[in-house]
Write a structure and sequence with these properties.
Blueprint: E1 15-21, H1 25-36, E2 41-44, H2 51-54, H3 85-98, E3 103-104, E4 107-115, E5 118-125, E6 130-140, E7 161-162, E8 175-179, H4 183-194, E9 198-202, H5 217-225, E10 230-232, E11 236-240, E12 244-249, E13 252-257, E14 260-263, H6 271-277, E15 281-282, E16 287-288, E17 302-304, H7 319-322, H8 325-335
Parallel strand pairs: 1-2, 1-6, 2-3, 6-17, 7-14, 8-9, 8-14, 9-10
Antiparallel strand pairs: 4-5, 5-6, 11-12, 12-13, 15-16
Helix pairs in contact: 1-8, 4-5
């Protein structure tokens, strides 16, 4: 099956049964299940289809098996026990083409007006042109990967600082600092070191996080033990300059020569967007008010899907379990 154009024209008078904000695997599953239930669905994304996956590291391998990434009852063929990023992107493109999903790529949702049964979603394309789509119901599946947890320290805005790691090649023979202690930090540190970078890792806790995958943790710990990668634990970066970083360690402050910084400090959902919709956020983890069975929020007609259901607890929902949210939402829509 070949890739095909995903956008289809629609008139301003079209009223969709469901508009899904976010065209990742979970958003796609919502649109697919709505179509299966006989509803007209449209998707809007400020980037490309599976925009977050596209921005994952180029050599990334998933932590799960192909069948747990499947949506729409379409098999995920892979020669690997754990598929890689490129296989996943190809798979989801094929699924989108198979179901002829109506995806409005590169359209950012600016605001939402109206109410249950008659929402208007105001969009802006990449050239600044305004548009609008009407829908009876909304499903928000915006994920969290495009919202980094910033350090809020001097020098964080320098061009040498990155909150996303993609490919190790540009950093060959340079001094690179990786901040963090979870999977993304461990993977970045290992790939950068294996590609010839001089890597230093800084983590606020006393050891790598317990959730680092079982086949990755021994690798990073051995590299640190052998001093291939220098590590500062119980430490934090307090300032970044063009040529160095200043680290607060248990022994005091230390200045380390540096060319590039990867702050792998995690990401969070777009809480401001949810609040602008009227969704109530509760508790320290900012959990959105949401019916666990229907996934309808406290705002009638607005449903939540994917990782945003868990608020700041972004390690609780992944593609494996978020992909089922589409069926829950479709069942609720048909029931109403």
């Amino acid at each position: 099956m070949s890739d095909s154009t995903l956008e289809t024209p629609a008139t301003q008078d079209d009223i969709f049964d469901l508009l899904v904000v976010g065209a990742g695997p979970t958003g796609m599953a919502c649109a697919i299940e709505a179509q299966k239930a006989g509803l007209r669905a449209v998707m809007v994304d400020k980037g490309c289809v599976c925009n977050s996956l596209f921005h994952y590291p180029s050599h990334m391998t998933f932590f799960t098996t192909p069948e747990l990434l499947e949506i729409g009852d379409i098999p995920f063929p892979s020669t690997n026990a754990k598929p890689n990023r490129n296989e996943a992107l190809q798979y989801y493109r094929h699924v989108a083409a198979y179901y002829k999903l109506d995806v409005r790529q590169y359209h950012r949702v600016d605001r939402v007006t109206g109410a249950n049964g008659s929402f208007t979603v105001h969009t802006v394309d990449r050239f600044g042109r305004a548009g609008a789509l009407q829908a009876r119901k909304l499903a928000i599946a915006t994920g969290y990967y495009d919202r980094p947890n910033y350090l809020h320290i001097p020098g964080e805005s320098l061009s040498k600082v990155h909150h996303y790691y993609f490919d190790p090649h540009p950093y060959f023979a340079t001094d690179v600092l990786v901040i963090g202690g979870k999977n993304s930090a461990a993977i970045a540190a290992l790939e950068l070191w294996r590609s010839g970078a001089r890597v230093t890792l800084v983590h606020r806790d006393s050891e790598m996080h317990e959730h680092v995958k079982y086949w990755i943790r021994p690798d990073i710990e051995n590299r640190i033990k052998n001093r291939d990668i220098k590590a500062y634990f119980c430490s934090k970066v307090i300032e970044i300059t063009p040529d160095s970083v200043l680290i607060q360690t248990p022994q005091g402050r230390e200045t380390v020569k540096n060319d590039f910084v990867f702050a792998m400090t995690g990401y969070h959902p777009d809480f401001e967007f949810l609040e602008a919709l009227g969704v109530r956020l509760e508790g320290e983890d900012r959990l959105p008010a949401c019916n666990s069975e229907t996934l309808e929020s406290n705002v009638p007609g607005i449903y939540l899907a994917g990782v945003i259901v868990a608020g700041a607890r972004t390690n609780e929902i992944f593609i494996e379990n978020g992909r089922h949210h589409g069926r829950q939402i479709a069942a609720a829509l048909v029931g109403k």
